[in-house]
Amino acid sequence: MRSSALPQGGEFLKSQDSLDGLPQVEDEQFEWWACLIAVPAALLLGALFHMVLPGLQRIFLGMPVHELGHAATAWFTGHWAIPTLWKTMWGEERGFVMPLLLAGGLGWVIWKGRAAESPLLMALGASLLVVQVVGTFLIKPATALALITWGGDGTGMILATALMASFFFGKETQLYRGSLRWGFLVIGAGAFADMFGTWWAARSDFGAIPFGEMEGVGLSDPTKLVDDYGWATEAMVRRYVVTGACCLLALAALYAWGVMRARPKHSRP
Fold first, then answer.
1. pLDDT on residue 266
2. Element at 219 (helix H, strand E)
3. Can you say how many angstroms the Cα of residue 243 is from the centroid of all Cα atoms in its chain?
4. Which residues contact 17 (CB under 8 A, 6 or more apart)?
5. How far apart (Å, rounded) are the C-alpha atoms in residues 203 and 62?
6. Residues near 268 by Cβ (< 8 Å), separated by ≥ 6?
7. Which residue among 160, 171, 241, 247 is buried most deeply as judged by most CB within 10 Å?
8. Which residue(s) pair with 82 in the sheet?
9. What is the rounded CA–CA span in Å between residue 78 and residue 253?
């Protein structure tokens, strides 16, 4: 049984059944309100930020996740990559060291999930391992290079969604205890609004697409995709928009699950 009040000394409330509320929270009522409001509010504020100060949003929130998107795509297609604030350095040829390191890391995640008896963690590690195998061994080299270029905003939106989704997980970790989830939520929402907002606007206005050359960086990703990899502009916009829409649908499903899970037991029918 779980007490409805916080024990002395700040000890976390505990539950053996994750469907009977959250496993570890300090205040069930506050947690429910936080899960209900935080993600929609963050996305709304991110959209407003994008409309008012898009440049600042891009610099402080969008670009770090964008560059990590390039790097993650490179890693999962067999290339080494080092992300920086404005540019990601990556290898033109596939290698052996990076795939082995990544596979080892994902194997460790699966092992940790098994040790912790966490099917979710095991499934996550196994799923990413499958993605790595497909990206490294089944995707053609030229396609992989195009995907790395696309991955700045494409994979970046996926990573931004993962940052927002982390709000509903890890109640027994520093995500909750150290309030990291609030920072991840702000970064994820701001980065997603920055990237998705650009491509949503491009549906009706190709002038919103950042074609051209960026100072100190070189040709922009859309320019490379169209000029170097032969993507049609309409297809490029559609692929980004579909990726962002799928991310929102996945986030909506997790949001519904997270809110239901956080609902205090005494308020359930």
1. 58
2. strand 218-219
3. 12
4. none
5. 20
6. none
7. 160
8. 89
9. 31
**In one letter, which amino acid is 175?**
L
pLDDT at 18 over 80: no
| pTM metric for this prediction | 0.89
Query: How large is the average pLDDT for residues 185-212?
Result: 96
CB 189 within 8 A of CB 57: no
Identify residue 157 by its one-letter amino acid code.
Answer: M
Q: What percent of the chain has pLDDT over 90?
A: 77
DSSP state letter for 267: G
SS3 of residue 4 by DSSP: coil
Q: What is the pLDDT of residue 22?
A: 57
Q: Please report, as a single letter, which amino acid is at residue 143.
A: T
- The span from the CA of 247 to the CA of 96, in Å, is 31
Determine the average pLDDT of the residues in 66-94. Answer: 95
Residue holding tokens 């829409």? 245
